Amino acid sequence: MSSQNSRLSEANSPDLKSSPHITVGSFQAKTYFADLIRKVESGVIVTITRNGHDVAVMQSPQSARNSKALKAWSKLMNLSRHISVNGKNNGSPISKAEIMEWKNNGHK
């Protein structure tokens, strides 16, 4: 990697290990496209901006699937905290076992 690309990474994401996300301007993205593709292949998410506004996100297909699954799981867990089924849970979170039981009962 070129020293300019290293500066690009450091300027936009000081600690790639804890936050695999960098932001670059559209001109930098065009200039360093091949390097950015390598970063995306390694799991980094790249946000491209124009005039300070986000216009695109580059991420690997696996990263996109993981993000969607994590968001869905988070929504489900948030919902479970607010549901009380027939007063059984008294407002307490629904367990994974209960969800699986409902799923299995639905298949009968």
Write structural notes for this entry:
This protein has 108 residues and is an alpha+beta fold. The chain contains five helices and three strands. The protein has a three-stranded mixed β-sheet. The N terminus is likely disordered.
Fraction of residues in H or I helices: 40-55%
Strand content: 15-25%
Instruction: Report strand order across the widest sheet.
Output: 1-2-3
Structural class, by secondary structure, is alpha+beta
Summarize the helix and strand pattern as letters.
Answer: HEHHEEHH
Shape category: elongated
Query: Which residues sit in consecutive blocks of at least 5 with pLDDT less than 50?
Result: 1-7, 9-18
For the CA atoms, what is the radius of gyration?
A: 21 Å
The largest sheet, given as strand count, sense and whether it forms a barrel, is: 3 strands, mixed
Arithmetic mean of pLDDT: 75
How many strands in all? 3
Q: CA-to-CA gap between the ends?
A: 57 Å
Structure annotation, total helices: 5
Offer a few descriptive terms.
108 residues; alpha+beta; 3 strands; elongated; disordered N terminus
Quick overview:
This protein is of the alpha+beta class and 108 residues long. It has helices spanning 3-12, 26-31, 33-41, 61-82, 96-106, and strands spanning 21-25, 45-50, 53-58.
